[in-house]
Write a structure and sequence with these properties.
Largest sheet: 7 strands, parallel
Strand order of the largest sheet: 3-2-1-4-5-6-7
CATH superfamily of the largest domain: Glycogen Phosphorylase B
Strand content: 15-25%
Number of domains: 2
Helix content: 40-55%
Distance between the termini: 11 Å
Structural class: alpha/beta
Shape: globular
CATH class of the largest domain: Alpha Beta
CATH topology of the largest domain: Rossmann fold
Number of strands: 13
């Protein structure tokens, strides 16, 4: 069969690549075409139509400022789907773009699978009505999502979280050794996130001379981009070894996103922090109806890890919360055991591939 996959960020690229490998095991004659990243290109053995870093915008203001580019990308994607004529269109998260593609594809007669649900349970739940119309197959990865969709009269398949698979394949840490205990800095994957979060994290590091701080560079960014913030601090910077870093670290400062769950699954004490454009943040606060921003806390339904958001995200408060988890990590470590239990045994990519290939 012919499969067309679309992912819009680093985590989607990772999960898309693992899904491609599992599909290929079940369908050796599979042909793939992808919007995504380097991992999906390698797994599919094909050239990307577009790299996610070229259209990775987050926040209301950022999207509006780049609306022309996004609209051109949507037009290009629709035309490319028509040329490729896939048997199955597989959309991976990235709802602002992918739900528009799903609408087009359903009307054009293509079968649409959505792998990794948009966070409709967090905001604009009414989007489920549209999803029911334009998505043939929804595969969810969080344990509470199946019941959420059921409340809207939609049957979905829960396959478990693909991070469990990615982490289980991680070999023993091979990253460089350090003379001091390591604190990992994960400032996000998009330029606008990094610009806001990394300077705050780096300033925080100055208060902990007995620790080695290490930045996990996002795969879509260049080392030079980080160095403009790091010249005064000279914190170590590594690329393509984030999981190795999480294995050896003592604690982490993490920008809200998939990385919060990754740190949790590595049982790494963390402080979650986020600061965005004030207009985007204000609009978001009016629309979002969840109590937490980190996946760890959302899944556990309690404040297992501290969250410093917007005006709370200051150097002084980061210092305070980091000291707390360095001195008393036991409660987070205990909560992480519950997190593993809730997420189950893994094999999400294999389960998802079986459902997709079966039809």
């Amino acid at each position: 069969m012919r499969y067309y996959l679309i992912a819009g960020e680093a985590s989607g690229d990772l999960h898309g690549s693992n899904l491609i490998r599992e599909i290929r095991l079940l369908d050796p004659e599979a042909v793939f075409r992808c919007w995504g990243g380097d991992k999906m290109a390698q797994a599919s053995d094909s050239k990307l139509v577009m790299h996610y870093k070229d259209i990775a915008f987050m926040g209301f203001v950022e999207v509006v400022k780049n609306l022309g580019l996004i609209l051109k990308a949507l037009k290009r994607c629709k035309a490319d789907i028509e040329r490729f004529r896939p048997d199955r269109l597989i959309l991976i998260d990235y709802p602002g773009f992918n739900l528009r593609i799903a609408d087009f594809a359903k009307t054009a007669g293509y079968k649409v699978t959505y792998y990794i649900s948009p966070q409709v349970w967090a905001w604009r739940s009414s989007r489920v009505k549209k999803i029911k119309k334009v998505v043939d197959q929804m595969l969810v990865i969080l344990p509470f999502e199946k019941a959420f969709y059921a409340d809207w009269g939609m049957q979905v398949d829960y396959v478990g979280h693909p991070l469990l698979d990615a982490i289980s394949k991680q070999n023993q840490a091979q990253t460089k050794s350090y003379d001091k205990p390591v604190i990992a800095l994960l400032p996000g994957s998009r330029k606008q996130e990094i610009r806001r979060m990394l300077p705050i994290m780096l300033e925080t590091s100055q208060a902990f001379p007995d620790y080695q701080f290490v930045i996990a560079g996002a795969p879509a960014q260049e080392a030079q981009f980080y160095q403009q913030f790091n010249q005064r601090h000279r914190v170590d910077l590594i690329f393509n070894r984030t999981y190795e870093l999480l294995q050896i670290a003592t604690a982490a400062l993490v920008t809200s996103g998939t990385a919060t769950l990754e740190a949790g699954l590595f049982s790494l004490p963390q402080v979650v922090c986020y600061k965005g454009n004030w207009i985007s943040y204000g609009i978001g606060r009016m629309l979002v109806n969840v109590d937490y921003i980190s996946l760890v806390n959302l899944i556990l339904e309690k404040p297992a890890v501290p969250e410093l958001i917007q005006s709370e995200c200051t150097v002084e408060k980061l210092k305070t919360e980091l000291r707390k988890i360095l001195e008393q990590p036991q409660q987070q470590l205990s909560d992480y055991q519950e997190l593993h239990h809730k997420l189950g045994e893994g094999m999400a990519s294999q389960k998802a591939a079986s459902i997709i290939v079966a039809g």
